[in-house]
Design goal:
alpha/beta, Molybdenum Cofactor Biosythetic Enzyme, Chain A, Molybdopterin biosynthesis moea protein, domain 2, Molybdopterin biosynthesis moeA protein, domain 3, 4 domains, 18% helix, elongated
Length: 411
């Protein structure tokens, strides 16, 4: 089977070209966290909707407190959520709480700490002058009616959701979470806790990939471990494409693998088999399987070695999922130029190497990384607690104290 030899950049371009943004749907605000807005949000209301007090104190006419101290009668009290039953007349004060509507006739608020209650609160002595408009939050001071609050492409984070609630945006078009089918293949995989037989191993890739998918904000759908049976694999793949937006498989894409996966995918899907100039994760399969209605569903075939599967996901699957869900740059994890505290050795072989490292910010304000243990593509345990992925161009590696580009694998 011919394989297309490409760089990691070329491989990513091939994948992204076939994983367009999903069609927007209407989402409710309560379900919108992590979603990407598909339209501009224009406010139908002023925020705040009325002039209100920025603090607890007394509503007054600034001209009445131009000379202090001064004593004024307190003719009313306004709590948040209430309103004055009369306007303020010259020479009067009204007790007011933070957020309460400023009464007609008042043009400033005196901070309560700058006052003194008299006669059980019937009068107030004011010790500070104020200017007109002081501590008054005008209608529309935060958001004016008709203004664009957020543009299409904005990610709905908690603070964004708060603003949307404040302008009564209860539902709106957004890019949905991708439904991602995840399955592993191989007779040797055991995932039910039963004793291992000769040549069998515990399933780990699917468990890891389901969690990685969920971490992107997508919806992970577990299609289980599929045995090396062409009919069973075809049934699983067709069920996955009929119900999901993208399919991720693990195993069966290497040159020496038993050919059930390659045989089935080559027969029922439009596949491209890649040999990427990276280490680990050189073998990779990408294609499309059409639903009954003709819609093509992307399929990403990750290698079976656990670390290779992890690296393939980070470099290719994660960007694809983020793009499908409406995210723009960066599609990869956050990158940073770090300082290598230990040598990061490698040999010249025409490939870009990705090493799993431990990192953190130092007293100098820079991010420092050090070797994270064995780098074999089968040694997931050594990579499990790594929090950075270093990109090492072809050559001899990076000397201690040198700069190195890393992707941060955790927040």
């Amino acid at each position: 089977m011919d394989r297309l030899r490409v760089s990691i950049v070329e491989a990513r371009e091939l994948v992204l070209a076939e994983c367009p943004r999903l069609a927007p749907v209407t989402v409710e605000l309560a379900d919108a966290i992590g979603r990407v807005l598909a339209v501009d949000i224009v406010s139908p209301e002023d925020v705040p909707p009325f002039a209100n007090s920025a603090l607890d104190g007394y509503a007054v006419l600034a001209a009445d407190v131009a000379t202090v101290p001064v004593e004024l009668p307190v003719v009313a009290e306004i709590a948040a959520g209430a309103a004055a039953d009369r306007p303020l007349a010259p020479g009067e004060a009204i007790r007011i709480m933070t957020g309460a509507p400023v009464p007609a006739g008042a043009d400033a608020i005196v901070l309560v700490e700058r006052t003194e209650r008299l006669d059980g609160g019937a009068r107030v002595r004011i010790h500070e002058t104020v200017r007109s408009g002081q501590a008054v939050r005008g209608a529309g001071d935060d958001i004016a009616v008709g203004s664009t609050v957020f543009t299409a492409g904005t990610v709905v984070r908690p603070a964004v959701a708060g603003v949307l609630a404040s302008v009564n945006a209860r539902s709106f078009p957004a890019v949905p979470a991708a439904r991602v089918a995840v399955l592993s293949t191989g007779d040797e995989l055991i995932d039910d806790g039963s004793p291992l037989g000769p040549g069998q191993i515990r399933e780990s890739n699917k468990t890891m990939l389901l969690a990685l998918v969920a971490e992107t904000g997508a919806t992970a759908v577990d299609f289980g471990v599929i045995r090396d049976d062409e009919a069973a694999l075809e049934v699983a793949l067709r069920a996955a494409t009929d119900t999901c937006d993208i399919v991720i498989t693990s195993g069966g894409v290497s040159m020496g693998d038993y050919d059930v996966v390659k045989a089935v995918l080559s027969r029922i899907a439009e596949m491209t088999w890649l040999e990427i100039a990276i280490k680990p994760a050189k073998p990779f399969a990408f294609g499309r399987l059409r639903r009954a209605d003709g819609r093509p569903v992307p399929i990403l075939g990750l290698p079976g070695n656990p670390v290779s599967s992890l690296v393939s996901f980070e470099l290719l699957a994660r960007p694809a999922l983020r793009q499908m869900m409406g995210h723009t740059e960066p599609l990869l994890r956050q990158s940073i130029v770090a300082v290598a505290d230990t040598p990061l050795r490698r040999s010249t072989d025409g490939k870009v190497h990705y090493q799993r490292l431990h990192g953190g910010f130092g007293a100098d304000g820079r991010y420092h990384v050090s070797a994270g243990g064995p780098q074999g593509s089968h040694q997931l345990a050594a990579s499990a607690v790594a929090n950075a992925l270093a990109e090492l161009p072809d050559g001899d590696g990076v000397a201690a104290g040198s700069d190195v580009l890393v992707y941060l694998l955790s927040s």
